């Protein structure tokens, strides 16, 4: 039985992202006005200036370079890097810099890519992170205790005129979801405008019941926060389990259908598509005050963490992954931001 299962996994290995992927799931929406609104957005032209394209590439390349440095300098540290899913940085950057009425953003996210977001978007001091890696603690000296593990770091900072709170999270991933809504609800009670951002893994979103519980509470009086924007960083694997053995639905995002919310699917190798999806999600949320989700079809370059050898369980998939450049490098080459020979596979 074990041999047959391994053969199934090898022969049905996960795919690398399809850069042509971009579509909204709206057929399940009961409100015709919502469907029409999304259809109208989808039909509009979406063109970017060279400056915006360069900013997208720099955002992804910063994340890529950060992970490359961390691999070289702290190669024996589990940090759950973002390699293969740098498109998440594009979506997060778009949400945090959107010129809307929200004076506060509250982020709940798991460990993967957390250090990239802290250093690349939220101004977390690199020195403090390195000190933590080398055995220090993130708490002030006057406070007793050792703090939390590296991949649970949090911050409270300002991005332009927006206060951004990245909540601490437990290792039980999605447990931060109701906390995110609770903190957002607090700010609604004392001010106008808050943007809850929830980041998920594909296996956790469909496999952990707290996700469904939180979704089903999110529209009730006393719990409403004007809608959350969700991101699934779809690595196509839960630890070592391929999606076809981890859930019976087609998409990891299918729980969103329970609350009649739309989903947009986009390739992790398509930062322009991710930017468009992010902007359209915010437009939908502002219009209808409902949850909306981006499913980013991507991969993780080093398996569950940097100390794993993922080709033991997904040999076909990881042969494909290791033969290609990371998304930031691919996009930089595409737009001619830097000469090809200045970029390396890392």
What does this structure look like?
The protein has 346 residues and is of the alpha/beta class. The chain has a single domain, classed as Thiamin diphosphate (ThDP)-binding fold, Pyr/PP domains (Rossmann fold, 3-Layer(aba) Sandwich), CATH 3.40.50. It is 39% helix and 14% strand. The strands form two sheets. The chain has an eight-stranded mixed sheet with strand order 1-9-10-6-5-2-4-3. A two-stranded antiparallel sheet has the order 7-8. A hairpin with a 2-residue loop joins strand 3 and strand 4. Helix 3 packs antiparallel against helix 12. The chain is globular. The two termini are 37 Å apart.
Task: List key phrases describing it.
8-stranded mixed β-sheet, alpha/beta, Rossmann fold, 346 residues, 12 helices, two-stranded antiparallel ribbon, disordered N terminus, globular
Write a brief structural summary.
The chain is an alpha/beta fold and 346 residues long. The chain has one domain: 3-Layer(aba) Sandwich (Rossmann fold). The chain has twelve helices and ten strands.
